[in-house]
């Protein structure tokens, strides 16, 4: 009887605290004790559940993924108002316990406060000023595009799964920027590194990862289930640390070669600052984040782009016609070409919109108590900007569920910008590698279509372009094609 009484009191206290806390937050579905709204959310397609909630509770609502509330922003107006109009207040990073265990609050993606501001500012400045009078980032991407074309030629027009090759290219670009070197597509160390990055990105997209992040106590109770994730992270970090030590031995402060050199020079400049954010641990964590964010996101988008082009050969033909007219067959594409290629630019934007790579964005958090649309959101509350609701808004895109490059073209065939285009998030937490990703997508895709015709193994009408999953990230289906030299 005493046990039942105590449990009843605990349950009553929990429900009372939850009810009091919910009064000031936006409305939402009634949560169950301890598990919240988990049973009402489809882990394989969270967005579908959020859309259904928005029809009942409006564009700003609260869900409990576990015991803690998360405020969901649905639709362009709500997302813009929060991330852009109140950018500073919504610039925090929400809890992601597994990532926090790996990076310990360091790096770019999952850090907060001054750590995030200092490292982000440095990374953006370094990427923008990269080259120091030598090869620019564009030249590095162009070089990798030529290597990619040569690897595709080796397939000799036979059928292949493009996943592996399309992962190598952006990974090599990141290696070039960070380590001042690229690797052959068959180099064993390079392949091992790429495999570890790939496995962890996929693991972070699994429904199980959502459960661990919403119930972090499970990480301690069932550590074996995450052993592979932590082991992969440890391998990547040890690889990076080895490269850092090599750079220390050959560093020339007057001639920085890459991102690591620039970071080491910054560390030396701030060695007397006790609160400096520039440490060995921060360097390793930052490089770790750059690998994860800069490899799989671009390769996944490229892979889905080729599938959509197979499905729509008429679109492919128009892009190749524009390539022939603007670039020709005898020189490599460059970024200056993009302004003269509105249709190709529109196709790439439409691929990103249609793919909707990160449906709910990485979790944000408010950095202070804020009154938002007559609701009081306490400091530290998790905020989920539902990017799908922006990229698939029927008010901006006439047929949001259909792949149509016309969504980014005006009546005269000129490229048409859209404020609703937010594949990289928006505001102060927008992806630090957005410029690099745009460059890679344009140069890699135009280089491929300049040199090859894409041949499907089945009738294009029978190709299935349905995404396999839409959890933390969208996952395209596997497929095969032939790269037939032009």
Automatic annotation (TrEMBL):
Residues 1-21 form the signal peptide. Heme binds at residue 431. This is unspecific monooxygenase. One of its GO terms (cellular component) is endoplasmic reticulum membrane. Its cofactor is heme. GO terms for molecular function: heme binding; iron ion binding; oxidoreductase activity, acting on paired donors, with incorporation or reduction of molecular oxygen, reduced flavin or flavoprotein as one donor, and incorporation of one atom of oxygen. Keywords: Endoplasmic reticulum, Heme, Iron, Membrane, Metal-binding, Microsome, Monooxygenase, Oxidoreductase, Signal. It is an enzyme of class 1 (oxidoreductase). Belongs to the cytochrome P450 family. GO terms for biological process: organic acid metabolic process; terpenoid metabolic process; xenobiotic metabolic process. InterPro entries: Cyt_P450 (IPR001128), Cyt_P450_CS (IPR017972), Cyt_P450_E_grp-I (IPR002401), Cyt_P450_sf (IPR036396), Cytochrome_P450_fam2 (IPR050182). Its EC number is 1.14.14.1. Its main location: endoplasmic reticulum. It comes from Microcebus murinus. It is found in: Endoplasmic reticulum membrane; Microsome membrane. It comes from the Eukaryota. The gene is CYP2C9.
């Amino acid at each position: 009887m005493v046990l039942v009484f105590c449990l009843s009191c605990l349950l009553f206290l929990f429900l009372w605290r939850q009810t009091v806390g919910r009064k000031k937050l936006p409305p939402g579905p009634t949560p169950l004790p301890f598990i919240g709204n988990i049973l009402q959310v489809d882990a394989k397609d969270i967005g579908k559940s959020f859309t259904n909630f928005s029809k009942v509770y409006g564009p700003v609502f609260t869900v409990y993924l576990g015991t803690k509330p998360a405020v969901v922003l649905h639709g362009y107006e709500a997302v813009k108002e929060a991330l852009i109009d109140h950018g500073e207040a919504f610039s925090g990073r929400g809890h992601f316990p597994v990532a926090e265990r790996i990076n310990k609050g360091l790096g770019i993606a999952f850090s907060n406060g001054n750590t995030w501001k200092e490292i982000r500012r440095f990374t953006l400045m370094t990427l923008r000023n990269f080259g120091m009078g030598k090869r620019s980032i564009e030249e590095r991407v162009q070089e990798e595009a030529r290597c990619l074309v040569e690897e595709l030629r080796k397939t000799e027009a036979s059928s292949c799964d493009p996943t592996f090759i399309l992962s190598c290219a952006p990974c090599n670009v990141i290696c070039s920027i960070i380590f001042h070197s690229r690797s052959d597509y068959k180099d064993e160390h390079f392949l091992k590194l790429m495999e570890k990055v790939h496995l962890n990105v996929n693991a972070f997209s699994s429904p199980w990862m959502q459960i661990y992040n919403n119930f972090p106590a499970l990480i301690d109770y069932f550590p074996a289930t995450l052993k592979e994730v932590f082991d992969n992270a440890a391998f990547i970090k040890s690889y990076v640390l080895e490269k850092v030590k090599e750079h220390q031995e050959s560093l020339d402060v007057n001639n920085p070669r890459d991102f690591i050199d620039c970071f080491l020079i910054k560390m030396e400049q701030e060695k007397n600052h006790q609160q400096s954010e520039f440490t060995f641990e921060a360097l390793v964590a930052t490089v770790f984040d750059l690998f994860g964010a800069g490899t799989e996101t671009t390769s996944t988008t490229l892979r889905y782009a080729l599938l959509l082009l197979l499905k729509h050969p008429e679109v492919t033909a128009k892009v190749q016609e524009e390539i022939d007219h603007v670039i020709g067959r005898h020189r490599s594409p460059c970024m200056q070409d993009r302004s003269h290629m509105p249709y190709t630019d529109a196709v790439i934007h439409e691929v990103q919109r249609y793919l909707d790579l990160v449906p709910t964005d990485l979790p944000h958090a408010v950095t202070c108590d804020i009154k938002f649309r007559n609701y009081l959101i306490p400091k530290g509350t998790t905020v989920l900007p539902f990017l799908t609701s922006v990229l698939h808004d029927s008010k901006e895109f006439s047929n949001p569920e259909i792949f149509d490059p016309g969504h980014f073209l005006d009546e005269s065939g000129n490229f048409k910008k859209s404020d609703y285009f937010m594949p990289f998030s928006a505001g102060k937490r927008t992806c630090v590698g957005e410029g690099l990703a745009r460059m890679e997508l344009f140069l890699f895709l135009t280089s491929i279509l300049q040199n090859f015709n894409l041949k499907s193994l089945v009738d294009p009408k029978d190709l299935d372009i349905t995404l396999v999953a839409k959890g933390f990230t969208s996952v395209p289906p596997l497929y095969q094609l032939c790269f037939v030299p032009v």
